[in-house]
Specification:
Blueprint: H1 3-14, E1 21-25, E2 28-34, H2 35-38, H3 49-57, H4 60-81, H5 85-88, E3 95-97, E4 100-105
Antiparallel strand pairs: 1-2, 2-4, 3-4
């Protein structure tokens, strides 16, 4: 499977499951999440005031890390189920710049 095929599969299968955006950039896929654009998507339920307090007290970096970990797990599981993960694809460490976190799949 090449990078274009992987990108198409990720887009078709995970578009509603992940919070970040996937962009094909040359020979890699870039996942990114912009906290400023997506701040209203952070779920805070009335039933769980402890969760609300936690979200209110988290730093932007902690919120970005949460989204990164969640989406990375979903993406890794999907790629692993394609039986293609361990032999070919790598995921970079996340980079945070201002309120944006990103990583690359190559």
């Amino acid at each position: 499977m090449n990078i274009n095929d992987l990108f198409e599969n990720l887009q078709k299968s995970l578009i509603d499951e992940i919070k970040g955006e996937l962009i094909l950039n040359g020979n890699c896929i870039v996942w990114s999440y912009d906290l400023d654009r997506n701040v209203e998507e952070i779920e805070i339920t009335d039933d769980d005031e402890i969760d609300y307090d936690l979200k209110e007290s988290c730093s932007p970096e902690e919120l970005l890390q949460e989204v990164f970990i969640d989406d990375k797990e979903i993406i890794e599981k999907f790629i692993f189920e394609l039986d293609d993960y361990t032999d070919y694809w790598s995921i970079s460490e996340p980079e945070i710049n201002n309120n944006i976190i990103s990583f690359k799949i190559y």
